[in-house]
Amino acid sequence: VPDPVAAVALAWTTLLLLGGGVVLLRSRDTLHRVLALDVLVSIVVVLLTVLSYLRDVSYYVDAALALALLSFVATLVAVRHVTRGRPF
Amino acid sequence: LTEAALDGLGAGLLGLGLLLATAGLYGLLRMPDIFHQLHAGGLVTGPAVLVILLASVTTKSTGIVTSAALVFLFVLITAPLAGHAIARAAWLRPDADGDERPDAVASLVSLGSAGMRTLVAYDGSEAAKRALALAAELTGTSGSIVVAHVAAPLGEPDFAGSPDVEDPEQELLLAEARSAIARGGVHAATLRRRGDAATELIAAGDELDVDLIVVGSRGRGPFTSAFLGSVSASVAGGAHAPVAVVGPATEVGDGPILAGVDGSEASLDAARVAAALDRRLGRGVRVVLAYASHSAPGALAVPEAREELARAEEQRAEELLGEIGDTLGVPGEATQLVQDESEPGALVALARDVDAALVVVGSRGRGALRSALLGSFSTRVVDDAPCPVVVLPPGARASSFD
Which residues of chain B lie closer than 8 angstroms to A12, CB-CB? Predict the structure, then answer.
């Protein structure tokens, strides 16, 4: 990936992150917030991936994997809490 | 040339991914409800991330490609799962977005304000029929009964299906139950719900502000219930009114109503509820205080001291029962002391001996799994008693029978 392209992509993703923040602030209830946070984490994963392309190092992607893992578990637990009133 | 082609491919993939993410975010902001928003959000969490990770093949670093491949696999699996979990929660949730779910229509007719209000869960099973009969008996002609049937959610909310189809089977069941009650002269209304049975029943009980909830139980043991889920146990743990659990082999006996107390404030409510229920049944109430003689250290060496201690315990129990009888107006003579036995076993045995009509006990409201592991007094009584058991969930209003 050419460096200028990656740099532009990085800037764009940062803007998307702000957009995700707007979605989170506009969410009406818990489930909307869970969805907004899920999307927000995806954008951060994208951000970290593009950053690793730009700097040509791999460990940003590893951080993205850890983040995606956490987000998945958190989503499932939060959703269970909404339906059952308790996480387990 | 290959260099330029790779660069072009990488730039293209990045651009496509960002375009997908932007479109998804825009949809998330514009779509009207959670189901539509999930569709848009899925575009970001799934395809957008995957396409951008795919762009890693155009970098010349093997480290990045391996790491990205791992994330790619992970996202490929978890993104749909997370989306499905959110959609399922939105579908099962009692009040989606504050607007009526089209299929959760409550066909509520005017309920009389006087008398007792009873909610009965009815699914046509043998236990449910017993529950219906018990509800009619306890409510009497002055009160009203709401027969509720909770059907499974309409499968997956598919795109072609219309969500407000009425379930003919559900209608038939409820009509059958209502006519059975009406024959006894009790005012009855029906309630149709969809979703998780226990959640919907507890919610319906709150909305209708009922005095009593009656549910049938399939009579599975504590462990089977913990793993397969027991609607009656969940309702008895989480409702805000007393819950009568009718097992598959229980009969309303000819004897009195037993109220199990241990001296705590919560258990006094059990005695109050028993007294209130007795106003309709007229069988008399027996307040049962279950206690075991504790062996004090060193007492074994001195037999006289042991007897002394036992006498003291007995005296304390007598005093407590006397107090309960005075404050609640429950006949004081109708008391019983149980000694040297495990408490649920003693209460169940006594219920069998006197052919009890009902047993009333308080519950600490542990969940099914924790009850199975830690042991729950109310759960064991429900499982073993020969008659229907009224459980007072920890959140039940003490005033519900005034």
Answer: 18, 22
* Chain A with chain B: Cβ pairs closer than 8 A: 156
CB-based contacts of A3, cutoff 8 Å, min separation 6? A54
Beta strands (DSSP E) in B87-195 are: 117-121, 144-151, 187-194
CB B204 within 8 A of CB B241: no
Closest residue, chain B, to A14 (C-alpha): B18
pLDDT in tens, B96-147: 444 344 333 343 444 555 677 888 888 877 788 888 888 888 887 777 888 8
What distances in angstroms separate CA A5 from CA A8, A47, B60, B65, B75, one per listed residue?
5, 14, 16, 18, 24
Could you give phi then psi for residue B103, rounded to 5 degrees? -95, 0
Contact A23 B29 (CB under 8 A): yes
Neighbours of B383 (CB within 10 A): 20
Cβ neighbours of B78 in A, within 8 Å: 68, 72
Beta strand B389-392 with B243-246: parallel, antiparallel or unpaired?
A: antiparallel
d(CA B274, CA B357): 11
Please choose, from the candidates B267, B271, B287, the residue with its C-alpha nearest in 3D space to the C-alpha of residue B354: B287
Considering only A65-79, B26-40, B329-343, which range has the smallest mean pLDDT?
B329-343
CA–CA distances in Å: residue B293 to residues B258, B306, B314, B343:
22, 9, 9, 12
Summarize pLDDT for B201-247 with one digit per residue, the tens: 888 888 888 888 888 887 665 555 555 557 777 787 778 888 888 88
Q: How far apart are CA B270 and CA B390, in angstroms?
A: 9
Q: How far, in Å, CA of B28 to CA of B51, rounded?
A: 19
Residues of A in contact with B18 (CB under 8 A): 9, 12-13, 16, 46
- Rounded to an integer, what distance in angstroms lies between the CA atom of residue B175 and that of residue B147? 10
For an interface test with B, give the residue of A58, A82, A88 to mutate (most B CBs within 10 A): A58
Residues of A in contact with B14 (CB under 8 A): 1, 5-6, 9, 50, 53
> Does the beta-carbon distance from B41 to A43 stay under 8 Å?
no
Strands B187-194 and B144-151: parallel
A86 CB neighbours in chain B (<8 A) are 367
Can you tell me the distance from the alpha carbon of A78 to that of B247, in angstroms, rounded to the nearest whole number? Answer: 34
